[in-house]
Amino acid sequence: MEAFRLIIFLMTITCFYFGSAVFFDKVYLNEKTASRFQKKSYGLDYVLGMVHFLVFFAWSLTLADHSRFRWGLSPFLLFMSAILLYDVVWFVASIRFDTMQELKLWTFFCVVVLFLTGVGFFLVRGLSSNDVVAEEISFVVVGLYLLGDFVELFTDRPFFSELVRMVLPKNQQDGL
Q: Looking at residue 168, what is its pLDDT?
């Protein structure tokens, strides 16, 4: 179990680290793109990013913790959920800034992934009554999302926004 947790943890922190670098480059450093974000707050984005990585540190302390809370949830799964939901906090805090536009797609995907992870966990737990197997199924959902994130981060190909474009009607694709 620790090996699976470590893989998910390392994949997640890597994606979020590189994702934050891409965000700060696009919004604050790159002269071609930074001008699109007139209303922004470097201090807010920096502090929220720092807090996010402090939550990662706390999450790392749960890698070998096998305790379970109500409904079979481990501390590791709860921190993983907090990491995925943190984008909602960042999005809401940035709602009055132009940077909110840069955060909205990732916030949406993190919420969807958390929802699918929860459905997978509770479905498998209900069918098998095995919390460990249910947690491992959750890792498959998150791992697939992170692999797509790697594709987008390291190939500069808009993998997730292309998926959304395939689903949404043409007249609702503004801002993707």
A: 63
